[in-house]
């Protein structure tokens, strides 16, 4: 039926396919969440900075 080399090739293919699948899930789900949180935090810091500057001028 199958020789040992073909079996190793099939296992390597499945391993690479599975790694690619989980990398795709990571890039599609977690990275946008991470970038969105960073942007929100940056905007919050900019608002606080602007608020402090406004208080100092008053």
Q: How does this structure look, described?
A:
This protein is mainly α and 58 residues long. It is built from one helix and no strands. It has one helix spanning 4-57. The mean pLDDT is 92.
How many angstroms separate the termini? 85 Å
Helicity level:
over 70%
Q: Approximately what portion of the residues adopt beta-strand conformation?
A: under 5%
The value of Rg in angstroms is 25 Å
- Major sheet characteristics: none
**Helix count, per DSSP?**
1
Q: Which geometry do the CA atoms define? A: rod-shaped
- Please tally the β strands and state the result: 0
- The chain-level structural class is mainly alpha
Order of secondary-structure elements? H
Mean pLDDT over the full residue set: 92
Low-confidence stretches: none
Key words describing this protein structure:
58 residues, mainly alpha, 1 helix, 0% strand, rod-shaped
Provide a brief overview of the structure.
The chain has 58 residues and is mainly α. The chain has one helix and no strands. The longest helix is centred in the middle third of the chain and has 54 residues, at 4-57.
What secondary-structure arrangement, pairings included, does this model have?
Layout: H1 4-57
């Amino acid at each position: 039926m199958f020789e040992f080399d073909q079996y190793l090739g099939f296992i390597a293919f499945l391993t690479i396919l599975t790694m690619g699948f989980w990398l795709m899930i990571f890039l599609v789900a977690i990275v946008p969440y991470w970038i969105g949180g960073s942007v929100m935090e940056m905007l919050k810091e900019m608002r606080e900075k602007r608020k402090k500057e406004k208080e100092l001028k008053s």
